[in-house]
Every structure is written in structure tokens, then in C-alpha cells.
Amino acid sequence: MSELIEVLSKEEIARSITEVGEVISHDYKGGKLALVGALKGAFIFMADLAREITVPVQIGFLGVSSYGKSAESSGTTTVTKELDLDVTGMDVLVVEDIVDTGLTLKFIVNYLKDKGARSVKVCAFLDKKERRAMDVQVDYACHEILEGFLVGYGLDYAEDYRNLPGIYHLEM
Ligand SMILES: O=P(O)(O)OC[C@H]1O[C@H](OP(=O)(O)OP(=O)(O)O)[C@H](O)[C@@H]1O
Ligand SMILES: Nc1nc2[nH]cnc2c(=O)[nH]1
């Protein structure tokens, strides 16, 4: 039997996104942003973050998968859905639910540079450094988490739990 232990409540999540949205709006003041969400995990965070940013944004999604039905990275990232926004010459902010080993993020940043983005920065809801294996930069993070496998608020385990409103530690 697996057990869920709450790590972040719905209210804590909302507060942190408002704060990060203010910082991003300040940093990009006078500009325009392309928000690129990494599917599937970032679908809820994207919707909440976008509404806390006050500079004009365009929204795109890129489907990527590194995990499948496991709590361990497969070691390779596959594109499950091509980016649906032209980011040529744009300032892009990658919107990720979690950065863990960094493999997926490294792939996304390279992908966006290849597509001609002018700049690429990263906003992660969770920055989990325990298993970091790649040299990646997280420019904005709502929460730093030390360890464990997390679910809820978009994050899954074998496609379950994405709709939970909080973040939970999955004890297996
Ligand atoms: O830093 P990493 O170790 O690469 O892990 C982070 C990635 O893992 C999850 O994606 P997953 O492959 O599970 O796909 P999903 O978003 O469809 O759940 C999550 O959404 C991140 O994109
Ligand atoms: N659901 C989930 N996906 C991840 N992908 C990388 N790390 C994690 C994690 O802790 N939880």
C-alpha cells in the first residue's frame, strides 16, 4: 500500500505562485514573454502562473516525457507533442512542474534554442536538487524540496494523482 503525506497545501501553493509571478512581472517589465509549458506535468502550474504575470504573454506547450510508469528517470527524453508556438526571436520562460535530475529541462532548453528563442529562462514550481545530474539553471522556483517522490498539482505517478490540489510525498 502506498501512502500520501501532504508537503504543500493548496493555500501555500497559491501564495508562492503570486510571489513568483510578481518577481517575473518585475523582471520582464516593458517586454513580452513566451511561456512554454512542459506537458503533461505543468498544465495546472501554467494556468495559475500565467494569471499572476502582468506583462503580455503568449502561451505554448511542448510535450516531453522522461519517466513513464516509474519513479526513476528513463535517462532519455522523448517529445510527445511538438511545440505549438513560434518562439523565434522571443524571450521564453519555460514553465516546469518539477526539476529533478535536470535531464528533461536540459532537453527543453536546447530544443528552444534550436527553435530560435532569443533568451530562455526557467520557472519551476518545485526545484528538487537531491538527484540533480545535469548542469541546469532554475531562474525562478516556487519551492525548493529536498527529497522524495512527489505527486499532486499536475505531478503523477504512472498517470495517477495529477488532480490533487496539494503536493504530497508518495511513500511506496
Ligand atoms: O528533472 P527530471 O529528472 O528530468 O524530471 C522532471 C520531469 O519529470 C516529469 O515529467 P515526466 O517525464 O514524468 O512526464 P509528465 O510531465 O508527462 O508527467 C516532470 O513533469 C518534469 O518534466
Ligand atoms: N511525479 C513526479 N515526477 C517527477 N519527475 C521527476 N521527479 C519527480 C517527482 O518527484 N515526482
UniProtKB/TrEMBL annotation:
The compartments listed are: Cytoplasm
Involved pathway(s): Purine metabolism; IMP biosynthesis via salvage pathway; IMP from hypoxanthine: step 1/1
Q: Where is the Phosphoribosyltransferase domain?
A: 9-157
What's the EC number here?
2.4.2.8
- A single Gene Ontology molecular function, please? nucleotide binding
What cofactor is this protein dependent on?
Mg(2+)
Tell me, in one coarse class, where this protein mainly resides: cytoplasm
Q: Which UniProt keywords apply?
A: Cytoplasm, Glycosyltransferase, Magnesium, Metal-binding, Nucleotide-binding, Purine salvage, Transferase
Q: Top EC class per UniProt?
A: transferase
| Taxonomy, superkingdom | Bacteria
Concerning InterPro entries, the annotation shows: HGPRT, Hxn_phspho_trans, PRTase-like, PRTase_dom
Pfam (any one): Pribosyltran
Q: Which residues form the signal peptide?
A: none
Which biological process annotations from GO are given for this protein? GMP salvage; guanine salvage; hypoxanthine metabolic process; IMP salvage; purine ribonucleoside salvage
So what does this thing catalyse? IMP + diphosphate = hypoxanthine + 5-phospho-alpha-D-ribose 1-diphosphate; GMP + diphosphate = guanine + 5-phospho-alpha-D-ribose 1-diphosphate
Of the GO CC terms on this record, one is: cytosol
Recorded family membership:
Belongs to the purine/pyrimidine phosphoribosyltransferase family.
- Protein name per UniProt: Hypoxanthine phosphoribosyltransferase
* Species, as recorded: Desulfoluna spongiiphila
